[in-house]
């Protein structure tokens, strides 16, 4: 499988997040899976790519012209694709992936997670999404999603093809199932 991973691009992250991202990358590669991600060697994005590479896994990076101009470090990927903007990059990452993992992050990470699960909801995409809930980071979001379903404001069960995990090993096994 090729797994698309979303996660924070921030610098100066708590080690608990960085360590979990590295471990996720190692676990994906140990199970024989490749990864596609946002391409930069920063934050949790970079940490997961280093984890995949540490176990000899394949990494595809999709960067953008705009972010390149900001001088961000690019991870040494086996394959590097450059798109014009974030929306095109997101479409390309989704096309290249068989499954998705969302790690803790900020606006960009939320955007990517919600695009994928709403495409699944609309029937445009058939793929599993896993959330790596490091330190309970996503608890408020999970509560909000449950509330959206309980009130009927979200018309489908958001957990269909989407699951929350505290550790990478069961997460990867679920993606494989
Ligand atoms: C000036 C500055 C900090 C620009 C950073 N901007 C970005 N850098 C790298 N990846 C990004 C950026 N914006 C969105 N993304 C995408 O969204 C996630 C990171 O966004 P964030 O840090 O959670 O929100 C990554 O999965 C990546 O694919």
Overview of the structural elements:
It is built from 7 helices and 7 strands; from the N terminus they run βαβαβαβαβαβαβα. It has a 7-stranded parallel beta sheet with strand order 4-3-2-1-5-6-7, sandwiched between helices. It has 177 residues and is α/β, with parallel strands linked by helices. Strand 2, helix 2 (43-54) and strand 3 (59-64) form a beta-alpha-beta unit. Helix 1 (15-30) runs parallel beside helix 2. Helix content is 45%, strand content 19%. The chain has one domain: Rossmann fold, CATH 3.40.50.450. The longest helix has 16 residues, at 15-30. The N and C termini lie close together (12 Å). The mean pLDDT is 97. N-(3-methylbut-2-en-1-yl)adenosine 5'-(dihydrogen phosphate) (ZJS) binds at residues 6-10, 38, 40, 45, 67, 70, 86, 105-109, 112. One of its GO terms (biological process) is cytokinin biosynthetic process. It catalyses: 9-ribosyl-trans-zeatin 5'-phosphate + H2O = trans-zeatin + D-ribose 5-phosphate; N(6)-(dimethylallyl)adenosine 5'-phosphate + H2O = N(6)-dimethylallyladenine + D-ribose 5-phosphate. It is an enzyme of class 3 (hydrolase).
Name the features.
45% helix; 7 helices; 177 residues; seven-stranded parallel beta sheet; globular; Rossmann fold
């Amino acid at each position: 499988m090729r797994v698309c991973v979303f996660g924070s691009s921030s610098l100066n992250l708590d080690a608990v997040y960085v360590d979990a991202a590295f471990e996720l990358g190692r676990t994906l590669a140990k199970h024989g899976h490749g990864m596609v991600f946002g391409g930069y060697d920063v934050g949790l994005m970079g940490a997961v790519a280093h984890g995949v590479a540490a176990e000899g896994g394949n990494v595809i990076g999709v960067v953008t012209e705009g972010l390149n101009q900001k001088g961000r470090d690019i991870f040494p990927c086996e394959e590097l694709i450059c798109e014009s903007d974030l929306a095109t990059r997101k479409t390309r990452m989704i096309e290249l992936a068989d499954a998705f993992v969302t790690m803790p992050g900020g606006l960009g990470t939320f955007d990517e997670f919600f695009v994928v699960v709403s495409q699944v909801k609309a029937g445009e995409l058939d793929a599993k999404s896993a959330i790596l809930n490091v330190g309970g980071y996503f608890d408020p979001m999970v509560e909000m999603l449950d509330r959206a379903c309980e009130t009927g404001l979200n018309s489908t069960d958001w957990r269909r093809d989407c699951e929350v995990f505290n550790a990478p090993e069961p997460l990867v096994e679920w993606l494989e199932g």
